[in-house]
Each structure stands twice: as structure tokens, then as C-alpha cells.
Amino acid sequence: MNVLWVFAHPEPRSLSGALRDDGLRTLRELGHDVRESDLYAMKWNPVVDAADFGAEAGDERLVVGATSARAHARGELSPDIVAEQEKLEWADAVVVQFPLWWYGMPAILKGWFDRVFVKGFGYGVRAGDGRTLRYGEGRLAGKRAMVVLTAGARKPSMGPRGVNGELNEVLFPLQHGTLFYAGMAVLPPVAVHGADRLPDEEFAAARDVLRTRLRGLATDEPIPFRTQNGGDYDEDLVLRPDRAPGAAGLAVHLRQAG
């Protein structure tokens, strides 16, 4: 299997860096081909601007969606964006690793998605009959994705009643609204809690959990998100009344909720 590892941490000697190094080694030992995007080491530019779209941008008002779609179709995207898209096309699975900062990704990683997942590649993909292909369909359908993150919060505080919010709900914008939106099957995340004060024995346990999850990268069951075009949503993209009747919130978008 071809695996792309996207890493967003400014310190390679960190706990995150140690997990990344062990994870890449594990994948190679398992016989997988691996490529990496180490965003800080690459000095990745996270800012979308007209320079991303070559001659297509011109001197007119920049409409990012439409302009990026035309640049993508004409092969005029900047070379750094094209290189990352080529890695994604090559990959069968993508590991996205980052420290959880202010309930989200570091800006450099958010900017990677902003610039790489342009219209026509990550979104705005249509079928021959005009249907929009998203939430389980799209250009990246058939690929797998898994989030690996470190968080300062202890695990109970990111549980169902924890003050920090349940982990999968905190990650919903990334796992459902970005990765699954673009068509990828998203595996449950690997989270290391209390990462800023982790004793050696807990690091070893976290490393072993990651190794186990990487062994199942091709076979583990993904999060059972409902697909947009699978019959669960009406023409306004609202969950039908007979699916999870009486319920609301993010969990209704999981098939077991109904």
C-alpha cells in the first residue's frame, strides 16, 4: 500500500516527532511504500493568494473557488500545490498528524488543506449526471485516512461529558467536513492525551497503539459516516425524519445513530 504521512509539528525532537519516526519505520517494516510531507521542514506556505493560480488569476477580483477550479483544470496551479496533489493521487492511505491547538489544527496544516484541496480536486467534483460528489464520494474516494494527534488534555476531559468536548466531535470538521467530504474513508483517530507531561511508560504504550493501528490501516473499519447520496438525506441535505428520529447533533450523521 502507498501511504502519505502529513506531519505538522515545529519540533522534530518532540513526542510527536518520535511517534512519526516510529510510525514511518513501522509502515516500511510492514512492506508499505511511504512518502512524507513534513510541513514545517518544507517551510510550507499556508496562505492562499493569487500566486497559487498562475496566469488564471490575472488582475481581476480573486474568486478563490472558481479561479482555483480553472487553474486546476488548465494545469496552472503553483508547483508546490501540484506536488502535494500528486502525492495524494499516489497514496492509498493518508496519515494526518498534528498537535491539537485551540481545538484545531496548526495553521500550517489548515493552510495545506486550503491550498491543496482546491475546487475540482478536493471539492466541486460532479458526476456525469450533474450530482455533486461529496461526503463519501469524490476524487479521493477509495482512499483511507487516519488522524494521529497529541493533546495536552487528559483523556477523561475529552470524553462524552468532558469539559473539552468529545474527541470525535472536536475532530468532526476535519474527519467529516474535510477528509470524508473529499471521499476518503476515515478511520477512528489515534490520540495521545496529556502529551506535554507523558511519562516514558505511557509513551511506550502510545507507540504500541500507533503500531497496532498502522497494521490495520488497510483493513480496520472506518467511522460509519452516512454518505450524502446514499438515501439518508433529502433534497435540502437534511437527514430524513425516519433516520435517527427525534435526535439531533453530530452523532446523527453516523449510520449507527439510526
UniProtKB/TrEMBL annotation:
It comes from the Bacteria. GO terms for molecular function: oxidoreductase activity. Keywords: Oxidoreductase. Its EC number is 1.-.-.-. Residues 1-212 form the Flavodoxin-like fold domain. It is an enzyme of class 1 (oxidoreductase). InterPro entries: Flavodoxin_fold, Flavoprotein-like_sf, NAD(P)H_dehydrogenase_qn. PANTHER family: NAD P H OXIDOREDUCTASE-RELATED, NAD(P)H DEHYDROGENASE [QUINONE] 1 ISOFORM 1. Belongs to the NAD(P)H dehydrogenase (quinone) family. This is NAD(P)H-dependent oxidoreductase. It comes from Amycolatopsis melonis.
